[in-house]
Every structure is written in structure tokens, then in C-alpha cells.
Design brief:
Distance between the termini: 76 Å
Strand content: 15-25%
CATH superfamily: Zn peptidases
CATH class: Alpha Beta
Structural class: alpha/beta
Number of helices: 9
Largest sheet: 7 strands, mixed
Radius of gyration: 20 Å
Strand order of the largest sheet: 1-2-4-3-5-9-6
CATH architecture: 3-Layer(aba) Sandwich
Number of strands: 9
Helix content: 25-40%
Number of domains: 1
Shape: globular
């Protein structure tokens, strides 16, 4: 390589590096979503292939249905209700609040199958993917299509002051944790807020990744472990579901943090987590 070519090469490398550092301060080009999901069949066709340990057959067996809600970009949210005989408790299980936590959606789909095989006297409502706009990108991202962290968008007390302040001072304006312009500004978080008011679950289980712990917010004694995940209450954040549901509304919220965002636990571990959840629910909430 001659001297001029070396200079050109060095200039290109410098320009690329500069652009990479400058990108967060520029308006990002809109990400191109996949075709809109409007049916359960389309959900399985688009989602199953990119999720870890979710063959098409497992997704089809989930027998998902649209629930009437849509994401910012218009993807239909899917759910499955499994109602045991004499059910007297309502449990809402949610995955994919953050689009880059693929394993959370996988776990919920596996648990749908588990719920059909184990009687529990519980009306289960499963929503495996709350943030399809984030997950269906070529490179999945935490936030929704408007760049909002849905788990910071719930109307906790003093949100107008505390959420922006926390984002600015504690996260240094981290775009992955932007709480939004106001509480419930996003259709996905608004759907969950309305669902809590309308359906009034006795328990919410929210599946995340990748911290490998079990968190809990609410008025009852927390589960000490689910499978290999042990209780480690990490505190509350302005606008979070745990803060809004568990602390403010007194509606228990179990937050599962899987060890990996891109790998699901082994089948035996998934089963053990499910059985531990059933056992704790029976002991603390009377699901027996």
C-alpha cells in the first residue's frame, strides 16, 4: 500500500469511528420493521424463527389470539388464556417488555404449554410479546418504536418529576432507558395499565433478562426462588411496573430476570421454575 492509499485508509477509519461516536446525538433513521403481525399465524411465522428454543410447533400449540391491542407500528398483541376448572385467581404473565430480551418471550411460550398440563385453579393470561416493534427489528432493541422504555412509562407517583430526573441524573440520558414524554404515552404500556384496571389480576409475572435473579414488589411475602433464580430485590424505579403495580397498586409483581437474553433455560429448569411458581402461588395467594 502506497503512502496516499494509507492516508485514504486512515481517513476512512477515522470518519467511521467519528460517525459511530456521533450517531447517538443525531436523529436515527427509522428502523424498517417486518410485515405487520395481525394474526396468530403471522406471529408464529415471524417470531418463532428468531426466538431461542421455540420451534414452530410450540408456537402453534400455544393457540394465541389477538387481544385487540396494537403496538406503535400496528403489530397486534397476542395472548392465550388458560382457565382451570374452579379457577378463583387471575395471574397475568408477560414477556418481551424489552424487545432485545428474546428469552423472555420464549419462556412464556413454554409456560403456556406447562399451564395446560398442570391443574392449578388459576385463570392464566399469557402475553408473550408486549414490545413487538423492538423485537422484530433486524437488530432487536430494548425500547419500542418511539424509543421509549416501556418499563419506565407507568404512572408511578410523582412521575413527572422523578422519572425525567432519574433518567437524566442516574442513567446519564441513556436512550435505552428513556421513560417517555409522559406516563402511559405508549400504546403498549397503556394496554397493560388498562388491563390491570379491567381484569384486576391477583398476580403479575413479568419476565425479563439477563441479570439472573428473582425480584418482587408487593404486599405479600416474596418467593425465595424459582428454579435456580434466587430472590434479590433490586429496588424500585420511577415508572417501572414493579413500582406501579406492586408498590402503588398493592398488586404483587414477580419479576423474573433470566440469566441470558438470547438463550432459554433447559427444559428441566423451565419446568422447575413453573412448579416453584405454582407452589408459591398456592402458599401465598391460595391457589389450591
Amino acid at each position: 500500500m502506497n503512502f496516499r492509499s494509507s492516508l485514504v485508509s486512515m481517513w476512512v477509519m477515522w470518519a467511521v469511528a467519528l460517525g459511530a461516536h456521533a450517531a447517538p446525538n443525531k436523529a436515527a433513521a427509522p428502523a424498517q420493521p417486518m410485515a405487520l403481525i395481525q394474526t396468530p399465524q403471522a406471529f408464529c411465522q415471524q417470531v418463532a424463527g428468531r426466538l431461542p428454543n421455540v420451534p414452530m410447533a410450540l408456537c402453534a400449540q400455544a393457540q394465541l389470539q389477538t387481544n385487540g391491542a396494537k403496538s406503535v407500528q400496528g403489530h397486534a398483541l397476542m395472548q392465550r388464556d388458560v382457565i382451570s376448572p374452579n379457577a378463583h385467581l387471575r395471574v397475568l404473565v408477560i414477556g418481551g417488555v424489552h424487545g432485545d430480551e428474546l428469552s423472555s418471550t420464549s419462556l412464556v411460550l413454554h409456560w403456556i404449554r406447562a399451564s395446560t398440563e398442570t391443574p392449578s385453579n388459576i385463570h392464566w393470561r399469557f402475553v408473550p410479546l408486549m414490545n413487538p416493534d423492538g423485537m422484530l427489528l433486524a437488530r432487536p432493541k430494548r425500547t419500542n418504536a418511539r424509543g421509549v422504555d416501556l418499563n419506565r412509562n407507568f404512572p408511578t407517583p410523582n412521575w413527572d418529576k422523578e422519572a425525567p430526573q432519574y433518567w437524566s441524573k442516574r442513567t446519564k440520558n441513556d436512550p435505552r432507558r428513556y421513560p417517555g414524554p409522559k406516563p402511559l404515552s405508549e400504546p403498549e404500556s397503556k394496554w397493560l395499565f388498562d388491563e390491570m384496571e379491567r381484569w384486576k389480576p391477583d398476580l403479575i409475572v413479568s419476565v425479563h433478562a439477563p441479570y439472573g435473579v428473582l425480584d418482587f414488589d408487593g404486599p405479600t411475602s416474596p418467593p425465595q426462588k424459582l428454579g435456580r433464580l434466587y430472590l434479590d430485590q433490586v429496588g424500585i424505579f420511577p415508572g417501572s411496573l414493579g413500582n406501579y403495580g406492586g408498590v402503588h397498586k398493592k398488586m404483587p409483581v414477580v419479576t423474573i430476570e433470566l440469566p441470558s437474553a438470547i438463550r432459554t433455560p433447559q427444559e428441566a429448569e423451565i419446568r422447575q421454575m413453573w412448579l416453584d411458581l405454582l407452589r408459591w402461588t398456592a402458599e401465598r395467594l391460595g391457589a389450591n
